[in-house]
Design a protein that fits this description.
The chain is an alpha/beta fold and about 525 residues long. Helices cover about 35% and strands about 20% of the residues. It has 17 helices and 22 strands. The radius of gyration is 23 Å and the shape is globular. The structure holds zinc ion. Zinc ion binds next to loops. Zinc ion (ZN) binds next to loops.
């Protein structure tokens, strides 16, 4: 088996003390660690060696919540992120429709009414009709929980689904989910073509494990095609949508089924919406929308039943909960099912919590799967939505950690950028990205704790802490080399740290180190 020596590094193994030196990789695994002299001696003369030039070697980053399929799809759709006026969004639609044959779908995503400087509202159906009358148009909001369509698109849906819940061309939550499911998708071949560059970009950010939080048949088809055609290794861990629960049970699929590149972990339940679209389910009404408490997609009994069924069949459950009411329902469902705790239940997002919910999460052993960059992006408008009092447990990563809750981290990409170093900077600084300032400084995490979320605790959330997430003899060689050490870099500069090398299962998948 081929042996590679990585040497001359500042090694941060995560679970052991940092040291200077390197390690030896044989095949896909780490077989030896030590000083430079020691690893050279162990490896012997005939092995390849890579000089890491004094840079910092860490375990590869685990992205705990993202949507790789949507990320690839987003390369094939009109990008509306960062547009800061409604008129710019409408102009972009007009221009895109000019290049499109009649009747072809025009799909855009990423618009955010919170950023609009002209009018802070959703585009309307009539406005979209004026920009593109010959094409069906669907524009997904940045959060992925709401979209607007024009009349042509509405006609298409009206003949195929119940559209009574759609008013003024706005689709939300489950209705949007259904619409996305029945509308035509780009051919699989085009998806595969774009998958290579998308994965290369993820490797260049230091990601070695990607968690797909929207598992479905199309995703499996795509990853199988990638497995057959791509010349690079990759690791996807999937949580399947509730529509697949019965199939999983019938087929006897349990958590961790598969291997590399794709494992099925269990079930993903979307219990509420988003704070941005005011569909996250809150205990008390929105501060900027009297009477509205958001949407609970399933009543408690249904969430409980899904958790029970999944747990009895050895499937892990991840519940999306952004509002405190949705979080409370979800944690109660976990608490009410015997054996659920052993399956490492996950609460996704955890944006608005309460002391009570945090304590319950700690008691039940619920993992908090958080997206640190959300704090930096959302900070300018969170207070408008929930008011001052509820801010105490908003994006409260530190309170969770101090209560003994284990945290893993992701980005929800393509919703927000997936760069782990940006996430680590957000977690450690709580600084705003679009607006200067700090979002609740008391909730800052230590850099080492932020690193743990992206490494060993991410691995734990996937039942892979014995395989990856730290540098140890016997573990997989999933590694990343950084231009400087995040634990000694000034917090503000962490987001400027560069990824120099990414190694997945012993194979170099990104290299900016070798000239
Ligand atoms: Zn998500």
């Amino acid at each position: 088996m081929s042996r590679t020596v990585f040497l001359n590094a500042n090694v941060i193994p995560i679970e052991q003390s940092p040291y200077s030196g390197g390690l030896v990789v044989e095949g896909t695994r780490i077989v030896h660690m030590g000083s430079d002299e020691d690893v050279m001696e162990y490896a012997g003369g005939s092995s390849t060696s890579i000089d890491l030039q004094g840079k910092t070697l860490l375990p590869g980053f685990v992205e705990s919540h993202m949507h790789p399929f949507s990320l690839i799809l987003s390369r094939l759709t009109l990008n509306l992120t960062e547009l800061d006026s409604l008129s710019d969004v409408l102009d972009a639609v007009k221009e895109a429709s000019r290049d499109l044959e009649p009747r072809k779908w025009l799909v855009g995503r990423g618009w955010d009414d919170n950023l609009f400087k002209d009018v802070k509202r959703f585009p309307t159906k009539e406005e979209l009709d004026r920009q593109a009358s010959r094409n069906p148009v669907l524009l997904i909001r940045v959060c992925g929980h709401a979209a607007v369509v024009n009349s042509k698109a509405l006609e298409y849906f009206a003949s195929r689904m119940d559209t009574s819940a759609i008013s003024d061309g706005v689709l939300k939550e489950t209705v949007l989910g259904e619409a996305l499911h029945i509308m035509p998708r780009p051919p699989m071949e085009r998806m595969v073509e774009h998958a290579g560059p998308v994965f290369h970009d993820m490797f260049s950010a230091g990601l070695t494990t990607m968690t797909d939080m929207n598992g479905g048949a199309d995703n499996i088809r795509l990853y199988q095609k990638m497995r057959d055609r791509m010349d690079f290794p990759f690791k996807i861990r999937m949580y399947m949508m509730p529509a697949y629960l019965d199939d999983l049970v019938h087929m006897g699929i349990q958590k961790g089924f598969g291997g590399d590149p794709v494992k099925i972990m269990g079930l993903k339940i979307l219990s509420d919406g988003s704070l941005g679209a005011r569909t996250a389910n809150l205990q008390a009404p929105y501060s900027d929308d009297a009477g509205n408490r958001g949407i609970l997609n399933y009543p408690f009994e249904e969430v409980h039943e899904m958790v029970r069924k999944a747990s009895e069949n050895n499937l892990q459950v991840a519940v999306h909960a952004i509002g405190d009411a949705a979080a409370s329902v979800s944690v109660d469902a976990f608490a009410g099912v015997r054996g659920a705790a052993k399956l490492r239940p996950r609460l996704e997002h955890c944006q608005i919590l309460s002391r009570e919910v945090i304590d319950k999460m700690s008691n039940v052993g619920v993992i908090a799967s958080v997206q640190p960059v959300f704090a930096s992006f959302d900070y300018p408008w969170v207070e408008d939505r929930i008011g001052k009092d509820r801010l105490e447990y908003a994006y409260a990563w530190r309170s969770l950690r101090d209560s003994g809750v284990r945290l893993c981290a992701g980005s929800d990409a393509p919703i927000y950028p997936y760069e782990p170093l940006l996430g680590i900077w957000s977690a450690a600084s709580r600084k705003g990205i679009r607006k200067p300032g700090v979002f609740r400084e008391a909730q800052r995490l230590e850099v080492m704790d932020a690193l743990r979320m992206y490494t060993i605790d991410g691995a734990y959330s996937l039942f892979e802490e014995n395989e990856t997430g730290s540098l140890e003899v016997g573990k997989r060689a999933d590694m990343v080399v950084l231009s400087s050490d995040p634990t000694t870099t000034a917090t503000d500069d962490i987001k400027k740290i560069k990824v120099e090398l990414t190694v997945l299962d012993g194979e170099v998948v990104f290299d900016a180190l070798t000239p």
